[in-house]
Structure formats: structure tokens, C-alpha cells
Amino acid sequence: MQFRAWDVVRLCLPTIAALLCLTSMGYAQDEVDSTAAAEGIARSAEAFSRALERGDAEAMAAQYVDDAVLVPPGGRMIAGRDSIRAFWAPRNPDFRTLAHSLTTDRLEVVGDAAVEVGTWRQEGQVSGQQPRESAGRYLVVWRRQQDGAWKMQFDSWTAPFAED
Asked: Which end of the chain, N or C, is less packed with Cβ atoms under 10 Å?
């Protein structure tokens, strides 16, 4: 299913607006809860990066909620964990991700939801070529699960950019 950029904005905007609204109303949050949320999100992000390095689409998809939405560069929308798993399945047998990291630039936690903006970095290699590094920005909306784990509800990132 093909969606235009406005469709993605229309789907994501209510969630982001609700989070911002709660924050601007002075929603009181225990600092310990924020720290625990940041630690849980960091664990999930780390598991995602290690799975990407292994080429393990199943483990990557496990970091998303069942009805998650993925918006990769180019604006195509991918909805649902099964479709996300298929997206992350290795497509080029000659390419390998050697290292991947996610660095949080800003994290806003409101109850069982969090909005994270950060920088992704990756070192990849095509067979027979020198490894290449790339980086970009990402925006993720996380949801705390009943077991306390944090999983991605919405995930979007930019194409690689030249270093600042």
C-alpha cells in the first residue's frame, strides 16, 4: 500500500500532539520513572542495533509493537510487524552492516509513551569494497508494554547526510 507524506503526518500527528499537550500542561513525572524509561529504551535500541548487525530481521521486528508504522527515507509507509520484518530482511547478499548505533539527542517521556529524536550511525561494507560510514537522524515514538519493555510504535529516519 502506497501512502503520501501527508498520510503519514495525518497518522502520526495525533499521537505526537497528545504527547506534547500532556507535556505542556505540566504533567508531573517522577524523575526515577524517566530514568527507568530512558534505560529501557536504550536496551531496546541496543537490541535493535545488534540484530541489524547480525542481519536478524526477526529480532529487529521484535522491537516493534504489532501495529507499528515504519516510515523509511522516501516516505513509503510500512505498517504492521510482519511487513516490518519483511522490510528488514536482508535484500542484498553482498552488503553487510558492520556496526550500528543510535544516540539519543532528546527524549520526552509521558506516562507509557516516549518521543525520541536522535542520530543513527552505521558502518557498512559491500563485498570487495572498503567499509563506509554513514549517519542520519531518526524520530521514534516508543510505547511501554505491560511487561515494562519499550517497543517502537512509530519509526522514521532520514537518508544518510554529510557530517555536520
From this structure: C
Residue-wise pLDDT for 80-124, tens only, equals 999 999 999 988 889 999 999 999 999 999 999 999 999 999 999
Cell 542520530, residue? Answer: 119
Q: Domains (ranges, CATH) in the chain?
A: 5-23+36-157 (3.10.450.50)
- 97 — phi, psi (to 5°)? -85, 120
Q: Which grid coordinates are listed for 111?
A: 506516562
Is 75 within 8 Å of 22 (Cβ atoms)? no
Mean pLDDT of 26-55: 84
148 neighbors 136 (Cβ within 8 angstroms)? no
What is d(CA 92, CA 113) in angstroms, rounded to the nearest whole number? 34
Residues 6+ apart with CB under 8 A from 129: none
Q: Using CA atoms, how far apart are residues 121 and 133, in angstroms rounded to an integer? A: 7
Smallest Cα–Cα separation from 135: which of 122, 124, 117, 116? 122
User: What pLDDT is recorded for position 29?
Assistant: 47
C-alpha to C-alpha distance for 78 and 82, rounded to whole angstroms: 10
Q: Is the pTM of this model over 0.85?
A: no
